[in-house]
Amino acid sequence: MSDPSPPRKRRTAGRITLNDVARQVGVSALTVSRFFNHPERVSEELRHRIGEAVSALGYVPNLVAGSLASARSRIVGMVIPNISGPIFASTIQGFSDTLARHGHQLLLASSYFSPEQEESAVRAFLGWSPAALVVTSHFHSEGTEKLLAETDIPVVEIWDYQPERAPIQVGFLHYDAGVMAARHLLERGYRRIAFVQNSAAGDFSALDRRDGCAATLRDAGLELWSFAPSAGSAPFEAGREAMERLMQETHRPDAILFANDNLAAGGLLAAQRMGLRIPGDCAVMGFGDYAFAEMLLPSLSTIRPPSLGIGETAALRVLESLGVIATEAPVQRLNRLECQLVEREST
Amino acid sequence: MSDPSPPRKRRTAGRITLNDVARQVGVSALTVSRFFNHPERVSEELRHRIGEAVSALGYVPNLVAGSLASARSRIVGMVIPNISGPIFASTIQGFSDTLARHGHQLLLASSYFSPEQEESAVRAFLGWSPAALVVTSHFHSEGTEKLLAETDIPVVEIWDYQPERAPIQVGFLHYDAGVMAARHLLERGYRRIAFVQNSAAGDFSALDRRDGCAATLRDAGLELWSFAPSAGSAPFEAGREAMERLMQETHRPDAILFANDNLAAGGLLAAQRMGLRIPGDCAVMGFGDYAFAEMLLPSLSTIRPPSLGIGETAALRVLESLGVIATEAPVQRLNRLECQLVEREST
DNA sequence: ACCTCCAATGTCAGCGCTAACATCGCTAGT
DNA sequence: ACTAGCGATGTTAGCGCTGACATTGGAGGT
């Protein structure tokens, strides 16, 4: 046991490290580290020389090692129901871009509204010591709630807006969207207003919109006519069916508010095929402002949710919580964004 | 200098570590590590006891430390032009979902077609020692090329398909899409065919499609009529302008192939307003099969690129390269997927 | 001349985990 | 009985970086 065991062979190949750069410049590794993380604490001259050595050597900082040492990372995890749908894509885009502008990375997973998938994504993300975590809506599995409660990193819930909950929230009230739609239809002089939702989808937020609409009509002394097409059909077909059925009624509605733009598009098409004039015979309104809304004939009046804004605002709140960008006041916990009424030809 | 300096205080709070679990069970840390990474090398009994301790303590493995130690991670980086557009969203979705099914995470950034932004994303990603990297198309900055060439992790290029390049590629030939469109129009009996592209966008792939179309017409003894609306206008407006201008020609075309569905939708709308019958007076075809294509009136014939398939296939190739899933043969380097002709009413 | 103070830089000890190697106990072959 | 061989587990030494603290040297005050 006298002589020390011979040095083991290195495991990693010739990766260029901080030390290589430091040696080249003739400073300590820590100074090079500062060059990346606190450049203002390095003298101008060294800053210059280190910068040159870095690009000469093609050094790429090992963020994994840095995160381990500092117990911090510039990764932010986001779990969202789906990526490719018309709804969330721009939220992701806004979030990702805003993060990137401030040197943070996005770790993304989709849950398809499954609390289990959400939990497994959150668990995996937590292993990366992310700087923050963003989840969609306030409905989580018990396990997720526990994980989120125990962590001390900032957590942001998006899309939903539930004032009584603890974490930072960025979203809007679907109820308000319903009110907005109802007011618009009333202003235009419509009185016999129907609400069409696809009963198949467990879309609870649509119910909030319907309630907002119904309440507004009630204040005006009117009653909302609720209609759900037969379960199980695709939104487009369901919208068509709804339009056909409603138009056969003796006291048919003079305006239909569809739960989303897909339904509305189906309705619009059915109306065309039936030879109805829109909005003359019946006004049509949707929700979502999907890309095609302005391309329909007639173009579709709808409510545009603040998708992009939610992504951007969520990123800002995250960055503020992390102290990456300044806030005068403490980080705003509740962030209620507004939907936007998009008036087009169909109303 | 006689006595050793007193132990420094710990920097991290009471995070639960592998050692905590190991102590609780009465084994070494390494055995717990094996429990997570090579469960088959741990005896059944220990597997059981460790599993219980893990959930009792609520232990979440620190992937950062693990990656540093093993110089490997289960993160895959993807750089894509944009997230929210109609084109790439489902590629991301397919990629992310396939990765997730095999326990890998997606690190995502968008480049907006800017080689500089792409390079900075690639650089940041490389700092995370990702398991693999996916970039869009073969056009990169010099710096990116260098970074990709020097790394030894698998690199996959998607969307474009350039047989002579080195990395794994998953994509399709835009030229073929043009051929496919031309054949369809010829079969339908159209002879005076125009191609409309938005000159504003530096959309080189559209040129490939045009070339494929032109070649096919030439084989049939016909010539493609190329038209570019005035620069700088939005696709929708540009499509409208193209339709109006082309229809004023004395020998007007009997079919128009638009460079994408947005242009085509504008064209369709203009035709409606001009009182033209589609496809009677003029057939209209697009490219992309955006969500609205089937909701237009008439519904739009178009070419559907294999967006989802590209994402899924890219993920499979990545996982194969990593040895996560089996391949009999060596990983296929060139993966040419097919577009799909979507015949609807407009032709 | 002396001291204080601050900015610039360095030393040292880990962060939590895993690769490589060592060891232990047992089965099986001779 | 003896040992080769194997599966299960332990020991050691980092992975590349950064936090806390130490040190240095010069500006500025008295």
Describe the structure.
- 2 copies of one chain form a homodimer.
- Chain A is of the alpha/beta class and 347 residues long.
- Chain A has 3 domains: 18-61, 434 Repressor (Amino-terminal Domain) (Orthogonal Bundle); 73-172 and 308-338, Response regulator (Rossmann fold); 174-304, Response regulator (Rossmann fold, 3-Layer(aba) Sandwich), CATH 3.40.50.
- Helix content of chain A is 42%, strand content 14%.
- The first copy, chain A, is built from 12 helices and 12 strands.
- Chain A has a 6-stranded parallel beta sheet with strand order 2-1-3-4-5-11, with helices on both faces. A 4-stranded parallel beta sheet of chain A has the order 7-6-8-9, with helices on both faces. In chain A, strands 10-12 form a two-stranded antiparallel ribbon.
- Chain A is elongated and about 90 Å long.
- Mean pLDDT of chain A is 90; it is low at 1-9.
- At the A-B interface, helix 4, helix 5, strand 2, helix 6 and helix 7 of A face helix 4, helix 5, strand 2, helix 6 and helix 7 of B.
- Chain A binds a DNA duplex (30 and 30 nucleotides) through helix 2 and helix 4.
